[in-house]
Each structure stands twice: as structure tokens, then as C-alpha cells.
Design goal:
This is Type II secretion system protein. With about 140 residues, the protein is an alpha+beta fold. Helix content is about 45%, strand content about 15%.
Length: about 140
């Protein structure tokens, strides 16, 4: 009786390993861009929600009640923000808030160094609602 030898195209353990690694490599090539895009969309969505939450809190603040935002700072909003809300955004940058040139308005700002995320955030607002200077996104409210 002749013994069958495993090996090249006899599908030995090495060939199985190469096939599995090859399939995983191809899957990574196909799915990595989609995963990256989903992560960017998620981060942009969290940033947008944070900007809207801060704007809403500013309207409810003592500054919003008298329509004079002179002296407003993030610390003034902590009691008006949802529990667990952080000044640090999903991208690791801090939200900022300060009075606008017109004291009846305020600016909510955040630095967004990732151009693709910045474009996603910009696309969620009308052009007259924001300005961008370098990587800093700024919304004027109200």
C-alpha cells in the first residue's frame, strides 16, 4: 500500500495556512476603507451632536436669557449640559465657547485636524452657519 504524501497542492498544513492568510488579507483590503469611513462618520456625528448640545445649553444659560454673551465660558454651562457630557470631543480636541463680536451672539469652536471629518461636519450645516479657519470649525449662535 502506497502512503499519500501531503505537500504542494496536496493541501498540507502550510498550504492551508497560506490560503487562510491570503483570504484574510483580501478581506482586510476590502473592509478596511469601509471601517475607516464608518469611524470617521461616527466621530463627525459625535462632534455635531456636541456642538448642538453646547449651543442649546448656551441659549438656556443666564447669558441667553439676557441676550448678552459677554464673559461666557464652558464652565458656565456645566449644570445645563447632559450628565456625562465632556468638553473633550470624540476627536480628542476640546470644545470652546466665547462671545462673538456682536455680544448678543456667541461662538462655539472646535479644532478638527482630520480633513475628511471636517468636511463631514461642514456638510451637516448650511454655509452661513459656520466659518472655518485652518482646522478650526466655528459656529455662531444664535
Amino acid at each position: 500500500m502506497k502512503k499519500k504524501q501531503g505537500g504542494f497542492m496536496g493541501f498540507g498544513i502550510l498550504e492551508y495556512t497560506v490560503i487562510v492568510v491570503g483570504v484574510l488579507g483580501l478581506a482586510t483590503l476590502f473592509f478596511l476603507p469601509a471601517i475607516k469611513s464608518m469611524n470617521e462618520q461616527s466621530e463627525a456625528t459625535e462632534i455635531i451632536a456636541g456642538l448642538n448640545t453646547i449651543n442649546e445649553a448656551a441659549f438656556k444659560s443666564k447669558y441667553g436669557r439676557v441676550s448678552d454673551f459677554t464673559g461666557i465660558k464652558f464652565a458656565d454651562l456645566t449644570n445645563l449640559l447632559p450628565e456625562g457630557f465632556s468638553q473633550r470631543a470624540a476627536n480628542g480636541q476640546n470644545y470652546g465657547i466665547d462671545v462673538a463680536t456682536d455680544t448678543t451672539k456667541f461662538n462655539t469652536t472646535i479644532s478638527i485636524p482630520n480633513v475628511r471629518i471636517l468636511e463631514r461636519v461642514k456638510s451637516s450645516f448650511k454655509p452661513h452657519q459656520f466659518t472655518v479657519s485652518g482646522t478650526t470649525f466655528s459656529m455662531e449662535g444664535p
